[in-house]
Amino acid sequence: MNEWDSYRVQDFIPFSPDVYFRLLARMGETFWPLQLVTLALGFIALVLALRGRGRLALLLLAPLWAFVGIAFFTQRYTDLNWVGQYLGWGWILQGAALLALALTGYCCAGRSSIFTGATMTGVLIALIGLLGFPLLAPVLGVGWRGAEMFGLHPDPTAVVSLGILLIALRGWVLWFLCLLPMLWISLSALTLQVLQAPWWPVLFAIVAASFGGLFGKSRPDVRPG
Amino acid sequence: MEGKTLRRQFLKMLGAGVVSAWGFPGLTSAQSSALLSKPIPSSGESLPVIGMGTWRTFNVGNDPELLAARTQVLKAFFANGGGLVDSSPMYGSAADTLGFALKQLGTPKTLFSAEKVWSPAGGTTREQVASLAERWGVKTFDLVQVHNLDDWQEHIAVLRELKASGVIRYLGITTSHGRRHDEFEQVMKSTEIDFAQMTYNITHREVESRLLPLAKEKGIAVIANRPYDGGSLIKGLKRREKVPTWATEAFDCRSWADFLLKFIVSHPAVNCAIPATSQVAHMNENMTAGRAPLPDGNTRQKMAAYIANL
Predict the structure, then answer these.
(1) What is the DSSP string of A11-60?
(2) Backbone angles phi, psi at B144, to 5 degrees
(3) Which of residues 124-153 of A touch B (CB under 8 A)?
(4) Is the ipTM, as predicted for this complex, more than 0.90?
(5) A12 touches chain B (CB under 8 A)
(6) Is the N or C terminus of chain B more exposed, i.e. has fewer CB atoms within 10 Å?
(7) Which H helix or E strand runs over B245?
(8) Are B278 and A18 an interchain contact pair (Cβ–Cβ within 8 Å)?
């Protein structure tokens, strides 16, 4: 038997559903009511991006990526999965990259019509991240304090950021900065599939829609001058 | 004089666990309801036939509620006469969870602690063993195995030194999912080891052809991992099927746990199966499967055919 043929996704997920979902819920309960502030910051960042103030939007996203990298991945997730340490560093570096772009304004897109494909895709993805994830709380049987929220939990943070990046950035930097959010969302979808969480296909759909937005924004005729 | 010698030999055999019970050579049980055990070939020490795995189930981080729940699972394991607890540094916080639970329960004398060292070795074997012992809260491990044969030559050399100095009592190698069986076989043939851990269950029987006979021939104890094929096997059976009545008549099979675990531990070369669970009820069910009677050779064939035809 070829050794690699014998591996399945579940061989790389070393925890059970109750453990993972309790980790997410406990993260929320620990930091309550911080997530109300981060959720508000998410809406503000989306509005800023739509108004052409992409640099300010990125400035709001940057510390939240570093926070999730430290508080979720290196301090909690890594207890369950040694990969968490590396993911944590990835999230911190993404936060640093967002901060650098916010300070330099490099490849920021400026104001564009909301009716372009990439922008509409970005808004839709960001709203799913801001509003959809908290609504999973009743499905999982946890209170609102334990709900997954932008700025505190990795899935909604990555999803909302992806949407805002599609609006606020352009060029190769847009592709580069979308890489980690898309990678994490894909990893999370696979994890949720193994844990038999029924919403995992939505995450793959978000990644697919993001690719659509990226390709749409990369077409020369719609690229902002 | 001759009578005394015979009596002494009998008592020695009893102590080593080499007593035939219910027609199964090597099986011992103090009473009909007690957990069956088999001797470790390299020492004769008795080991209960049902152990406990910790993959996924004991990786709970620092969640107090789940730590308390897993402590109850371990408590049920020991209350049922369990011995071997197997873990790995790849199982996240499982070693810490075991340390927490053992601190709450006290470390019972029946504990047979089994850990693993993994890649990269790079001169870290001793450190890996010391770090894991600290996390478990034990001074020594009964068994340390080389995880999936990773850097096995370097690890085995150091484990042999640790065994000689009494830091560990046994050493072994592991594989799972049918991986690297050719290399595994070569190591079993060429290297002095006490234990070999491999995947063996009623739907994955590849090891019956070469590895299990070789273990028997070389006097290597066998630990069977993934007895429920990662859980999917028993979940599927419980959902769809009832335990066949012929199995109940043949070996008092009451549950699918009985059916699947008794099939494994009734193989003459297998010492111990290590199902993993996070629930006390399932633990009790698993441990019941370690009690007599076990299926004989003909019944085992019937069991395998029955599952294959489902």
Answers:
(1) GG--S-HHHHHHHHHHHHHHHTTHHHHHHHHHHHHHHHHHTT-HHHHHHH
(2) -125, 130
(3) none
(4) no
(5) no
(6) N
(7) helix B245-251
(8) yes
- State whether B66 and A22 contact (CB < 8 Å): yes
Q: How far is A26 from A122, CA to CA, in rounded Å?
A: 30
Distance from CA of B237 to the nearest CA of A (A): 19
Q: Residue A31 to residues A37, A95, A159, B132: CA-CA distances in angstroms?
A: 11, 20, 20, 32
Terminal CA-to-CA distance of chain B, rounded, Å? 59
Alpha-carbon distance B119 to B98, whole Å?
22
Where are chain A's structural domains?
Answer: 15-217
Inter-chain CB proximity A1 and B178 less than 8 Å: yes
Q: Do the Cβ atoms of B56 and A7 come within 8 Å?
A: no
- A33 — phi, psi (to 5°)? -105, 30
Q: What's this model's pTM, rounded to 2 decimal places?
A: 0.88
Of B9, B66, B36, residue with least CA distance to B265: B36
Tokens of B261: 């675990």
**Token pair 């499905």: residue:** A139
Phi-psi region of A178 (alpha: psi -120 to 50; beta: other; left: phi over 0): alpha
Q: Which of B192, B160, B47 is nearest to B114 (CA)?
A: B47
Token pair listed for B99: 């340390």
Residue B276's SS3 state is coil
**Contact at CB, B57 and A79, closer than 8 angstroms:** no
Q: Give the Cα-Cα-Cα angle B144, A17, A210 (nearest 5 degrees).
A: 115
- CA dist list (Å): B88 to A28, A126, B56, B147, B154: 30, 40, 11, 8, 18
A144, A137 Cβ separation under 8 angstroms: yes
Q: What is the pLDDT along chain B (310 residues), one digit of tens a residue?
A: 344 433 434 333 333 333 333 444 555 554 447 899 999 999 999 999 999 999 999 999 999 999 999 999 999 999 999 999 999 999 999 999 999 999 999 999 999 999 999 988 789 999 999 999 999 999 999 999 999 999 999 999 999 999 999 999 999 999 999 899 999 999 999 999 999 999 999 999 999 999 999 999 999 999 999 999 989 899 999 998 899 999 999 999 999 999 999 999 999 999 999 999 999 999 999 999 999 999 999 999 999 999 999 8
pLDDT score at B122: 84
Give the distance from residue B305's alpha carbon to the nearest chain A alpha carbon, in angstroms. 24
Q: Which of A1, A19, A82 sits opposite B60 (nearest CB)?
A: A19
